Amino acid sequence: MSIAITAGTTLGALQRAPLLDPVDQRILVCHALGISRTALITQSERALNAQEAAGIAALLQRRADGEPVAYIVGQREFFGLPFETTPAVLIPRPDTELLVELALERLPPRGKVLDMGTGSGAIAVAIAHHRPDAAVTALDVSTEALAVATRNAQRNGASVRLLHSDWYGAVAGEQFDLIVSNPPYIADGDRHLSEGDLRFEPSGALTDFADGLSALRTIIAGAPARLAPGSWLLMEHGYDQSAAVRALLSAAGYTEVQSWQDLAGIERVSGGRSR
């Protein structure tokens, strides 16, 4: 699909003849012109000059070629906060907000939180922003991801300790009141990895290059030594993995093992308490 827009095209005409998904197109047009959604509507008779037309066409073409909108505009909202998104990190998704909600409900006053594999920092920053009394630590093995997470923490005024770490390596000997994670959980070879936005996201943050459960096993095995007694471990996982994750938690001796459903009614987060 080749997209071309000519100078003189009005914003109204552009909206009446959507070239892409209407929501995606609106976001990209507003981004290209630096205007709000309201301005897009009220300036319907505004005619594009040649530079504006070319700029909009270029952005729409990138989306038509499959590139995620969040990477094109460099931003995605999560838990009511703006987050920088680059190809170095996963795009924050509404499903993951469930993990933040559950964490905030279980975090004691002035509690210590550990976010494993933080990526953009969305989970850690959201928790720290809403609970400034908490001491939030976030880990990632990717230095590029940590750079993005650092900027997102600064952007949202959140105090987060960010550490370069291969899982628990950088927090040996420390203890936390809550551990959360959205780890790589897509099995190697899963067809979804070659579809949609996932084609553009960092593969190491999506798949464990194994059965989809290896990262979850590592987190479950290491958490008891780093959780205060009776504290929660909460993990996001795939749409069909809840039973397997609950079995892993139960086998490792966690109590109150359970799963929680996202807005689509899918069991998206599972967790348990340390003994």
TrEMBL record:
Binding site for substrate: N182, P183, P184, Y185
InterPro entries assigned to the protein according to its UniProt record, in alphabetical order: DNA_methylase_N6_adenine_CS, HemK-like, N5-glutamine_MTase, PrmC_N, RF_methyltr_PrmC, SAM-dependent_MTases_sf, Small_mtfrase_dom
Xref: NCBIfam families: hemK_fam (TIGR00536), RF_mod_PrmC (TIGR03534)
One MF annotation (Gene Ontology) recorded for this entry: peptide chain release factor N(5)-glutamine methyltransferase activity
Domain Methyltransferase small: residue ranges: 96-190
Domain Release factor glutamine methyltransferase N-terminal: 23-74
One biological process term in Gene Ontology: methylation
Enzyme class (EC, first level): transferase
Family: Belongs to the protein N5-glutamine methyltransferase family. PrmC subfamily.
Protein name, UniProt field: Release factor glutamine methyltransferase
Assigned EC number: 2.1.1.297
Keywords assigned: Methyltransferase, S-adenosyl-L-methionine, Transferase
Taxonomy, superkingdom: Bacteria
Binding site for S-adenosyl-L-methionine: G117, T118, G119, S120, G121, D140, W167, N182
Keyword Flavoprotein: no
Organism: Pseudoduganella guangdongensis
